[in-house]
Amino acid sequence: MKYKVLLLLGLLLCGPLAAQEYFPDNDSVKEQNTNYTAFTGATIYVTPTKKLDNATLVIRDGKVVAVGTNVRIPQNSIMVDASGTTIYPSFIDPYSEFGVKKAQRAQGGGRSPQYSPTRAGYYWNDHIMPEYNAIADFKFDDKTAATMRKAGFGVVNAHRNDGIAQGSGVLVALNSKGDDADRVMNTASGQFFSFSKSVASRQSYPTSLMGAMALLRQMYHDMRWYEAGNSNTTDRSLEALIANKGMTAIFDAGDKGNDLRADKIGDQFGIQYVIVGGGDEYEAIADIKATNATYILPINFPDAYDVSNPYQADYVTLADMRAWNQAPSNPKVMAENGVPFAFTTHDLKSAADFKGKLMKAIKYGLDKTKALEALTTVPARILGMSETLGNLNPGSQANFLITSGDIFENSTTLYENWVQGTKNVVNDRNKKDIRGTYTLNAGGKSYEMILSGDAGKPKIEVKQGETKFPAKLSYDDGWVILSMTDEANNDIYRMTAAVVRSSDNIRGRLVLPNGRETSFNANKTAGPEEAEKQAEGDDGEAPTVVGITYPNIGYGYKSVPQSQNILFKNATVWTGEAEGILMNTDVLVRDGKIAAIGQNLNARGARVVDATGKHLTAGIIDEHSHIAALAINEAGHNSSAEVTIEDVVDPEDIDIYRNLAGGVTSIQILHGSANPIGGRSAIIKLKWGESADNMIYDNTPKFIKFALGENVKQSNWQSFSRFPQTRMGVEQLYMNYFSRAKEYDAKKKSGANIRYDEELEVLAEILNGERFISCHSYVQSEINMLMKVAEKFDFRVNTFTHILEGYKVADKMAAHGVGGSTFSDWWAYKYEVNDAIPYNAAIMAREGVVVAINSDDGEMSRRLNQEAAKTVKYGGMSEEEAWKMVTLNPAKLLHIDDRVGSIKVGKDADLVLWTDNPLSVYAKAEQTYIEGALFFDMTKDASMRAAIQQERNELIKMMLDDKGGNNGAKRRPGSRPKQRFTCETL
């Protein structure tokens, strides 16, 4: 295969010397054609912003020679009268899989995962393949090329969409003649990346989005280390990555969140990715603009749902309805915000669907000039080919379209698509365009006939008023053959007519249902533009687009809540401090902080909230949660310290809103328990409507999840190949990793030149007291074991979470200085929980352990106030101490008690106003504030419910009126239940 590549490269290099042919020609005795071709009298778009009327285009040898309104035409020119037509540069698709053989799915599977790579001499992970060259598996696809040319494309940038680092692409002209040596314009047209693993390898790691991100970061660290000459071995993958550094880097992100994730990795390593978006960038346009990236936008706008059945319609979420309604406006929003973008046919079933989707974007407000730029100059710039592609300046490739008019009108016909100076006929320019609206007189009756769609093969619709008659039409060689059926009588009318170029009307012979012959006539009443509007049901008005909310799902806000100055008057204040519970007390909030606590405080311009008869507390803090994340476990290795939940915070998880309704303001999102050393945590405030980054605590304390017990030794897994398989193996794994981290840290501190290892960097932070461990735990023997391991390496465990046998070793926990975050009354849900008791929390607390009650459950997390109350029943805790178990104590365990967890002057105003004693089952969180901003309000919630129902009804009506996608098809509603993550979720 490498010889094929070398041959193509050689031919490409010889391109400029084509006139000096060195091989014999045994096929003909003709001289080489040196004629020019001149297209005269056309409207020509030299660039999207440079339009010439009554202009001339001259081409030769596949290149533009001259263009203008006063061009001197060479004598040996073939003249083409292009009067009445418009010429545009052909389109460029910068992100395609055209002609490249798909990766073959790896064989095997079953009980044994693959942890090691399959290749020697390459990177340690099979999903990193920058050495792959798409040209090696390229074969020109005539059928697809014809479809692409019909859609207006002349050049595609093809690659193999497989893996995380996918290798380089190949730039191909869609020339119908010649061979690959002529068509291939660049064999290294860019390097490609994604967050998805290769189907060609069964290597387990990574199993998650956060794992893919960590792998990419480590890859770039390794590239720098290797490039500096530090490696004693050869790595062909890293060598290819280094060699490709100058290429355009294109990242297939696929949605707005991943757009930002990809850009963040690029920023860390000084790489500006071109990002393949997901079409939902309009929902986070400010953040998208801030990436400073150029985007490649699919336009696979979703089809409407079939909501005619009201019971099935209930399965369609408001978010999905909005996506259908709002997504076509994405290009417009991007353009209006100055975000550069190109279009792609990627994700469309066929390039034949492209024009319809593009017309929809224009109908939704996309400027036509921006649309043309997105198809010509922008993709050319992305590919570094601005000098020769995307324009019709002299010296550029002779890639251009000849149309009947404005290419962004449904009624416009694409006649020819010239690629590298080769003519490709799409629709015969000499064939009369019969599209339009007609009055059809046949058999003594009058009908309305609409001919629309493709000028070469128009679609027909025949009707009388609202009654439609099934009809068929063919139009070839100047003859029209059509038939229509009157279904009421099962009568078929058959008609034939010769099209007369000088007349807009159609007249011919009619065969009646009884076999008698007579004549018919169809008199044109409107042209193609009106016919298209009638066929599409277009009334000329711009579609109604519903407003964006933050987040853009049900219960999202029209604007992100902002901090207010507030005075709570006459509340029962649960301070969580030495002052205890204060009756009839005021709390003043200013600039997001608690400014004063006392009686008869002066509002000083603050909004006053009458809290008489109500209870004001600090916001609840959940030390152990798995909501608001897109992934929980990276299970590909037995240690995944290199991954972080901060990479995959999901700000649109509806459980955030539900937790706010339960008075929760902060949570620690923990990695799962798939491996002994898990990933790093994310500690966030539940700022509903904010971005993921704005939810994460500033200067956040550093935490990591460890795990013990059944999960990490894979007791209940189907695979049994990964170390460790026993509890004693878990201990040895910790000893091994901390020994390695200690050695790594010592070398780093000595100034030695070491390979930057994200995993060992994190473990070294633990050894240096810079990162804290929250450990999933159950049985006492393992609890003792980890404390001893920690003491051996001179650090302490921060928190044992679950810790359902903590009551057995509470004295040892207190001596070690470790806290406990536990359930109130869960037990017997698996074998190692059989000894759990509901008095566990109280017993640990009495021994001096800082104890919190956590949820580890998306449902329980919104009623942690009631879980805390159970410690009053089980263990006799006071109400104040019970309340601290979901406020101040988890704040202490998370090292954020200087900011939150109690009502104290200077702390963040994360507050909850309760209708009753917060430990009561009757208590409701009436209002929940974070830093003085109101993020949940019962009254507002009620109004939002009514607004959501009204919006659903409006969108359902729009969908019922929508004509659907191809052939009127609509999507069938289906249930997509929300997945709730737990410790074990893989």
CATH homolog superfamily of the largest domain: Metal-dependent hydrolases
How would you describe the shape?
A: globular
The averaged pLDDT comes out at 93
In the predicted model, the low-confidence regions spanning at least 5 consecutive residues are 1-20
Number of helices: 25
CATH class of the largest domain: Alpha Beta
Sheet with the most strands, sense and barrel status: 9 strands, antiparallel
Query: The CATH topology of the largest domain is what?
Result: TIM Barrel
Architecture overview:
- The protein is an alpha/beta fold.
- It has four domains: 91-418, Alpha-Beta Barrel (TIM Barrel); 436-536, Quinohemoprotein amine dehydrogenase alpha subunit, domain 2 (Lipocalin, Beta Barrel); 557-618 and 901-931, Urease, subunit C, domain 1, CATH 2.30.40; 620-900, TIM Barrel (Alpha-Beta Barrel), CATH 3.20.20.140.
- It is 25% helix and 25% strand.
- The chain contains 25 helices and 43 strands.
- It has a nine-stranded antiparallel beta sheet with strand order 21-20-19-18-26-25-24-23-22, covered by helices on one side. Strands 27, 28, 29, 30, 31, 41, 42 and 43 form an eight-stranded mixed beta sheet that branches. Strands 1, 2, 3, 4, 5, 16 and 17 form a seven-stranded mixed beta sheet that branches.
- Helix 17 crosses helix 18 (758-767).
- The protein is globular and about 100 Å long.
- The model is unreliable at 1-20 (pLDDT under 50).
